[in-house]
């Protein structure tokens, strides 16, 4: 045994010891916070959890989440806000729910943006002619009919933009080339890029697609024009083309692009869909599971957010089938127009403002339904301890991890900001942003077994929280 | 220590012991075959190998393969057979070589196919309207101007096609949906699919793209019409769309597609390019390194085969710069029209038939230039033992592996079938078929360090084989 080896062993020992200590301290403090009675009550649900898990992974529901999701997205494809196909898909999922003898369903109408992509083409004219893969960003205006032809200036970050001289930006096409760190950080170049470039005099702006990997894959998504700026056309291009343009410019050559884009924007009526499985003892107290039914206009919206939609659809269906009616009401919400900045969720907030405090716990899955690992939970320490203890029941499927997240989910952030505890599905979604808002968001991303496990976890957690004797503290 | 653990240890021990034995036997037999003198002579090249490795990975050549490849593919983009851009790229690489004071360059003209992709569109009309991503296959004929509209029949393999009743195929669009096993097996559905479907009366054929992973990525490639069949239009569609159509058909629904494709086919003159670094003692004896300069008409042809082209371009350049002139001639060949079935290589074979036996060893890199692992070697046991011993010199870069391959490379198979020993670059190309023949074959697939290592290995092996006192046995 050489010295290096001894040393490495020592370091490993110290590391594992100190890590074990942290975990133990957290566990100790949760044990103290919860007390033996609460922990015992949580563990009393082990049999119910097993029943749900068996039914979903081995019983009649095995493969059903995948199958129903596939039928749905194959039938409708993409379901953009404001379209007839979205409304038809809402009717379909309502019928699917009624077929399960769940009839406590209401829809709430609201006005949603209806942005329609027309023809889009970007051609590099200099230093050579090349077509670029492109997806215009949501709410982008059209170019003039003759297109926009201009030189490119490449901008790495907003600091560089702000410190640029206005004469270097004026009349140019800005291409943002940010390093992809996290989605929430990098997406600012997509959402605010056009407005900030326009303020400096740019006549169009493009953004390196917000994702870490590409096979010539542009990623669309929403952008919002600020007030008092000229609304300039804006689109996403691929990692590959952005890097190509960067290399060309770095060699001292000029890049000239021609952008031709058409689009239209108006508003339509859509609906949030609310499915209730009424509670036996506290029907006014709600445990909400949810996903959004709209998608971008590319791919099938299978991952974003078909998977989240269908595990949330499945929860009351499974409980109904198993005759497991909890004390509180399980409410499943299928949000509309999430992709246009939580339009459905804001409407729900406004409409139900007086009753928001009746929400005991709110869940949303909108970051993929890959293999479930646990939950990302927002709320106070006691709430997190309760959920952490519940997650211990899911050791057999390796879904015991609680991640602290002060604003889990997407739509439900509009609700949790009122101090209501909530959670999103924490899952093995490393490749989520490979497919997000691309033509590649299809059933090929989904896995039958992973969906079953997600459905089982989602349903069982919702049931336990809805049935347990105490409310989730806030 | 429990019983299971003891048992597992025993199994591991037995496995590692027997594996070690096999390796030792091979090594023993190579040692016996080669003899001490040969082994000693091979190891006498260790300093030269170090010099080349240092120069390429730390010295003036560091990053140069990547940079020159990037400049080349950024300037020309895709370089399809028969196009002016391909001929311009040949002129460019000749100039680049002359700039290195290497002037022993000849080009050999030959007739090549010039197939041009026009407009391509596939629309699913039933059960709903959806556009499919498409890439027509090389040599495909056009559809009639009004397109081809017909029902789809899905075929998993040729056995199923052959056993199908002709009335089930006649008038239909065949979609091949083979399981991707290896490229060489699965590609038959691309190359022969149209002919075999046509023979059964199909009016068009499509193939699930030949690759294991996709982000809505169609993969083009060559297909060849057989004699005495109607030439029907043929194209590749994505894994996602093939799976979608399969699910729809499996549900008992009918799929109707409309295919609109235009293309043209004629012949043009292109050139093989031959760069010689003349040997000091045996100038007629050749050690050939090679890659092909043409590419498909999508992406940049950076991976297929820009990387192989540039590590082969680099070999004589580096030896010239380092003043390392071997006994035999190092010949670098940039094959043309590989993508239309080795047209350049066949011309070389025909033109040099009388001198083929002067080729001592021939190498080609055409399966990616990811991190090099060693070489795939064709030839007799003694030839393989020599190369295996040479590869031992590359332990510091983990490129010591010899894979036995009776037909390494692509173009060079036309030469090695004459009994000439040869090798291709064995590299960490697990993702090669993610990008192969797609718009995603760009510089983003390439890595600077991996290209340096590939260049160093390629150059040093070529030098040693060209300089060593004995010929590679055959």
Automatic annotation (TrEMBL), chains A, B:
Family annotation (Pfam families): Peptidase_M28 (PF04389)
Location in or out of the cell: Endoplasmic reticulum; Golgi apparatus; Lysosome; Secreted
Signal peptide, first to last residue: 1-20
Record InterPro entries: CPQ, Peptidase_M28
GO biological process terms held by the UniProt record: peptide catabolic process; proteolysis
Location of the Peptidase M28 domain: 272-452
Chief localization: endoplasmic reticulum
Coiled-coil stretches noted in the UniProt entry, renumbered to this chain: none
SUPFAM superfamilies in the record: Zn-dependent exopeptidases
Keywords: Carboxypeptidase, Endoplasmic reticulum, Glycoprotein, Golgi apparatus, Hydrolase, Lysosome, Metal-binding, Metalloprotease, Protease, Secreted, Signal, Zinc, Zymogen
Gene3D superfamilies found in the cross-reference section: 3.50.30.30, Zn peptidases
Molecular function in Gene Ontology: carboxypeptidase activity; metal ion binding; metallodipeptidase activity
GO CC terms in record: endoplasmic reticulum; extracellular space; Golgi apparatus; lysosome
Record keyword Transmembrane helix present: no
Family: Belongs to the peptidase M28 family.
PANTHER family named among the record's database cross-references: CARBOXYPEPTIDASE Q, PROTEASE FAMILY M28 PLASMA GLUTAMATE CARBOXYPEPTIDASE-RELATED
Subunit structure: Homodimer. The monomeric form is inactive while the homodimer is active.
Full protein name: Carboxypeptidase Q
Higher taxonomy: Eukaryota, Metazoa, Ecdysozoa, Arthropoda, Hexapoda
Gene name of the record: LOC113520152
């Amino acid at each position: 045994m050489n010295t290096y080896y001894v040393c490495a062993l020592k370091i490993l020992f110290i590391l594992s010891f100190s890590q074990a200590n942290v975990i133990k301290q957290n566990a100790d403090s949760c044990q103290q916070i919860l007390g033996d009675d609460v922990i015992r009550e949580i563990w009393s649900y082990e049999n119910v959890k097993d029943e749900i898990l068996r039914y979903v992974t081995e019983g009649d529901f095995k493969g059903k989440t995948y199958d129903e999701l596939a039928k749905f997205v194959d039938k409708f494809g993409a379901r953009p806000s404001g379209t007839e196909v979205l409304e038809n898909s809402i009717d379909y999922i309502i019928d699917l729910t009624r077929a399960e003898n769940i009839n406590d369903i209401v829809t709430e109408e609201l006005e949603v943006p209806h942005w329609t992509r027309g023809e889009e083409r970007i051609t590099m004219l200099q230093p050579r002619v090349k077509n670029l893969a492109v997806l215009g960003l949501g709410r982008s205006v059209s170019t003039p009919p003759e297109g926009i032809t201009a030189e490119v200036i490449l901008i790495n970050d907003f600091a560089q933009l702000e410190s640029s001289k206005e004469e270097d930006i004026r009349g140019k096409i800005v291409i943002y080339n940010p390093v992809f760190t996290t989605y929430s950080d990098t997406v600012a170049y997509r959402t605010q890029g056009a407005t900030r470039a326009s303020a400096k005099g740019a006549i169009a702006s493009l953004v390196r697609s917000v994702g870490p990997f590409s096979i010539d894959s542009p990623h669309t998504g929403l952008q919002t024009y600020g007030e008092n700026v000229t609304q300039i056309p804006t689109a996403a291009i691929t990692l590959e083309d952005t890097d190509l343009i960067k290399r060309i410019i770095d060699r001292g050559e000029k890049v000239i692009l021609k952008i031709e884009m058409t689009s239209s924007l108006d508003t339509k009526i859509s609906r949030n869909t609310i499915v209730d499985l009424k509670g036996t003892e506290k029907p006014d107290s709600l445990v909400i599971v949810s996903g959004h039914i709209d998608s971008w206009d590319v791919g099938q919206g299978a991952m974003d957010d078909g998977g989240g939609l269908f595990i949330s659809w499945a929860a009351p269906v499974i409980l109904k089938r198993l005759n497991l009616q909890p004390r509180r009401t399980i409410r499943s919400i299928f949000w509309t127009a999430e992709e246009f900045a939580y339009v459905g969720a804001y409407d729900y907030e406004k409409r139900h403002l007086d009753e928001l405090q009746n929400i005991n716990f709110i869940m949303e899955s909108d970051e993929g339904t890959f293999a479930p690992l646990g939950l990302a939970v927002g709320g106070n320490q006691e709430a997190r301890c309760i959920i952490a203890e519940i997650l211990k029941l899911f050791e057999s499927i390796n879904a015991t991890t609680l991640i602290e997240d002060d604003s889990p989910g997407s739509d439900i952030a509009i609700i949790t900001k009122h101090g209501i505890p909530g959670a999103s599905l924490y899952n093995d979604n490393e490749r989520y942003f490979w497919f997000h808002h691309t033509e590649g968001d299809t059933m090929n991303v989904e896995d039958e077994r992973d969906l079953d496990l997600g459905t089982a976890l989602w349903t069982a957690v919702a049931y336990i929280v809805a049935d347990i004797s105490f409310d989730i503290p806030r």
